[in-house]
Every structure is written in structure tokens, then in C-alpha cells.
Amino acid sequence: MLLPTVALTNYATWTLTGTPSDGMLVFNTATTTGNYAVTPGLYYWYNFQWNKLSPLPGATIISALDCKATTSAAGVYYTNTSLTAGNNKQITITPGSAGTYSATTNVANGYSFSASGSFTAAQVGKPQTVTLQSNGTPEAAGTNSFSVTVENQVCSFSVTAYNYIDCSAPLKGTYKVNQALDSTSNTKQITIVPKVAGKYDFISIVYAPDASNTFSLVNSSTVFTTAQVGKPQQVTLKGAGTPKVAGTYNAILQVSSDGGQNYNLGCSFAVTVQP
Fold it and tell me: Would strands 153-162 and 77-78 be described as parallel, antiparallel, or unpaired?
């Protein structure tokens, strides 16, 4: 039997000439993305849409896919830290038939998500929660978009990766030789994503150029609650001490907590002392 060959635009559009007719069978040659995406294979028209026939031997046909975009992915995503089983994203798949499934995303910023399994006849037509496991390591801080593909269905969600500590905010105040630093005007804001709740101490020591010429920017006894863990928190470092020698020097931030999280050499920034 020779079937009509057509390049479908999506599975919700008839595309062919004439009136849509249940039972019409075609071979689709197109691959599309976005809502109602299609891939090459056999499709039949039923219930106002194209339905794919046997995408793979024993594979299920998916009738709906929901990425729950308003629900955050589980876990905290730190740069340069391998993801674990706690880093995952739940989606909902509604199977149109019993069989196996495979759900995969694109790779973005060094990591991706995937899941596979099977649905029984009793689960057909009912939304099923599926957990996508993460793979890889976030390479840089920022928000990335992931598109989930399951057969001819596509949906998307976003995940934000964080640096442990970010020192990129500008240094405030004037730094002059023999002028004592002021805790109000000589400041530096940093961002930290705490791993555990508890008290944190921040100290950024500037060796300029020896121990007798040391000044610092510090913040002691900052307490983060359980609700703040895994979320960016701003901390203001306050100037202390008196610069003795003009020049540009490197301030190295060290962080410790009573919860056992130590961020030695967490990040650094430049401080210029004027004559």
C-alpha cells in the first residue's frame, strides 16, 4: 500500500487539501519544534489531530506533556559542581498507549536532564509524574532554558545556576594613604548562595604590600536561615583599618560558617589606594 507523503507543520493542523477525515493515514517527512511538534513517521488523523503510529517498537504514544514551568527544579545548581540525584525536575506525561518512553532535553551550560521508563495500560489517558534526572556540571552562572522532547511532544522549563560567591559588584568609597576606612562609605557588596543554615563570617584581607600595611573589608556573624539556603543572599563587607601605601592590591575573600561550610579563597577583587 502506497501512503501519501506529506510534510506536516504540526500535529494539530490538517495540512492536506480537502476536509479533515478520521482514519486518514500519511507518512510525514518533516521534523518541527515548538508546540505540537512532529517527527518523521506514520501518522493517522483522529479526534482533530495527527497521531503518530508506533514511533518505536513497543513505544508509547504520548497524548500530552507538561513541564510544570512554574515549579522550580529540585536542588541547588552551583557552577563547577557536579549535579547529583537531588538535582532533578518533575514533569507530567499523559500516555496515549501503553509502552516505553524516553524523555530528553538539550544540553545547556554543560548539563541536561533525562528520564526513561514505561507506562501500563492502566495509566493510559491519565497524567503521570515523571522525574527527569540531571546530568553534567553547570559551567557558568545564569539561567538556562531546557526543552523536553517525548515522541512528538515538546515543552520547556528554566533552571538557574549560581556561583558559590560572587564578588563582581563595584567597590564603594575612596581609599587613601593614612586615611582610616569608614564602615559606612568604604563597602563592598558580595553575593553568596549558602549551602547550610547558620552563622557566617566574611573577611577580605588586603595585603598591601606586607602585614604591617594590612586593611580589610569584613562582615561578621551574618546568620542565614533554612529558608535562605540555596538562594542568592547579599552581604555588605565594611571597611576596617588604614591603608599605608599607594597602589592597586588584591583583596582575597574568605568565608567560614558554624555549619562547616568554608569558602577559602572564595573570590577576589581589586582595591586601589590613592596617595
Answer: parallel
